[in-house]
Description:
mainly alpha, 3 helices, two-stranded parallel sheet
Amino acid sequence: MVKKIMRDSLAGVLNALNADVLICGGIGGDAKTALAASGIKLFGGVSGDADQAVENCECCIDLYMD
């Protein structure tokens, strides 16, 4: 039950923030499913500097947003 609340909370918070994309490190399968159901594009398995990660994913994000 706690995992379900946490999974749904992530998708809920990101929806409340009008997020379209999540760039993150490790993420569980249930959270991936909840994000997909919420229409949030996931770039998982990313590591290193946050600004560099955004820059590295920027071309993919641009393709997704068009």
